Amino acid sequence: DVASVGATVNVILASVFAEGTTVIENAAREPHIVDLANFLNACGAKIEGQGSTVIRVQGVERLHGCEYAVMPDRIEAGTFLIAAGVTGGELLLKNCPINDMSAVVDKLRSAGMVIEETPEGVLAKCGENGLKGVKVNTRPHPGFPTDMQAQFMVLMCCAEGGSLMEENIFENRFMHVQELVRMGADIHVTGSSAMVSGGVKLMGAPVMASDLRAGAALVLAGLAAEGE
Known about the structure:
10 strands, alpha+beta, 4-stranded mixed sheet, single chain, about 20% strand, elongated
């Protein structure tokens, strides 16, 4: 009933060799699902509709090898852009899939970052007026990705004013909050919402990564923090 990246990927993989046609309705539309389908098609699969809410897979008997360039990772790219923000630095990010990152880039700009496309890559830095709090709601693609929520929360810790982070995809995706609080962050969680009071100075502390994105967020917090 709910569009799911993992479910869409697994059904695609399961249906490649299935007899007949498999129709996936309410399919997730993330760019890496399109990339997976394009790769499988290059190997001899028959998949169409990737990138839309309905994907059709005609089963085949076998696949063959191919050469394929995997797309750049938009979550990794977004994490690097935030690194420039939390450190007050400047970053030139090459091979950045900015066309697949509109929700993240729009929020970064709203928060006071300068994100510019140049012939060499994407240039990211803080604007002259510094960072400010914004409201973020995680949504399925093309909305703000849940996998950027933890990293963006660190940016909001470094911003002036309050911000609201609402997690609408995964339950218990605020495990990183208590770790950020160890570092001096001022964050209060109520249900699926986290209120961040920015402008505090983060301090080094022993922390634990509860999942991949939480770990990335804590690395960002470490870059912005005083101490070790």
